[in-house]
């Protein structure tokens, strides 16, 4: 699928997304005003938004992979995941009190974060190569948000995956911590997490929910990045994708995710 939007249109969309982020007011679905926008266009918008953020002084902290479960892919009419960028101001520490006004309608998801010891690049990266290149994996939580209306108030139309991709794959934050997991010694498919929201268990899941194995998602991302001449670098956070449903949070909420022997992440929103 090729790009159709011109540079001026992409810049207009990026400016609107920046305004939504600054004012905490969602904008109308991009695909309502630009129904011709392709997936390639959506990634072009995302790349331009990241470029502007980097030019403003932010730094690149890593990458996220989304829509890794088959059920989610079917629900939005695609047959592969999507991806977005992590910037330094999206990274929060475990035990943090996170300002709720950093977001519009935040949700939390349970994930695993990969940290590489050597680069990964190329369209033919295998899962075995991902494991060999990984220094360690840590428990993680992703905070997702939407700068674009999920449902259009006038038509009732649900936003498309193209809208989500343009909106940096809905990424807004990440918390990584717990104990180091060595994927050469532990089968990541069986790493599980229990998400507690204000003391109530809301979600449970296993790493196998991410494309059968979270390492598969990292191999997929390396192959996708090969199209753009990009490489996954050591030191970056790479979120492999959620294995739970996203849970809506609000000011005053407390979140704890128990990864069993691999540790627990606890944080709150204020």
Task: Summarize the helices and strands and which ones pair or pack.
Layout: H1 7-23, H2 30-33, H3 39-55, E1 60-66, H4 70-76, E2 82-87, E3 91-92, E4 97-98, E5 107-116, H5 127-133, E6 134-144, H6 161-166, E7 171-176, E8 192-197, E9 200-206, H7 214-226, E10 237-239, E11 247-248, E12 254-258, E13 264-269
Parallel strand pairs: 1-10, 3-7, 4-13
Antiparallel strand pairs: 1-2, 5-6, 5-10, 5-11, 6-7, 8-9, 8-12, 12-13
Helix pairs in contact: 1-3, 5-7
Description:
- The chain is α+β, with helices and mostly antiparallel strands and 270 residues long.
- 26% of the residues lie in helices and 27% in strands.
- It contains 7 helices and 13 strands.
- The strands form 2 sheets. Strands 1, 2, 3, 5, 6, 7, 10 and 11 form an 8-stranded mixed sheet that branches.
- Strand 8 and strand 9 (200-206) form a beta hairpin.
- Helix 1 (7-23) crosses helix 3 and helix 5 (127-133) packs across helix 7.
- The radius of gyration is 18 Å and the shape is globular.
- The model has no long low-confidence stretch (mean pLDDT 95).
Summed up, what is this model?
By secondary structure, the protein is an alpha+beta fold. It has helices spanning 7-23, 30-33, 39-55, 70-76, 127-133, 161-166, 214-226; strands spanning 60-66, 82-87, 91-92, 97-98, 107-116, 134-144, 171-176, 192-197, 200-206, 237-239, 247-248, 254-258, 264-269.
Characteristic key phrases:
270 residues; 5-stranded mixed β-sheet
Give the SSE order as H and E letters: HHHEHEEEEHEHEEEHEEEE
Largest sheet: 8 strands, mixed
Distance between the termini: 43 Å
* Total number of beta strands: 13
Mean pLDDT: 95
Strand content of the residues, in percent? 25-35%
Low-confidence stretches: none
The total of helices stands at: 7
CA gyration radius, whole angstroms: 18 Å
Question: What portion of residues is helical?
Answer: 25-40%
Structural class: alpha+beta
**Shape, per Cα inertia axes:** globular
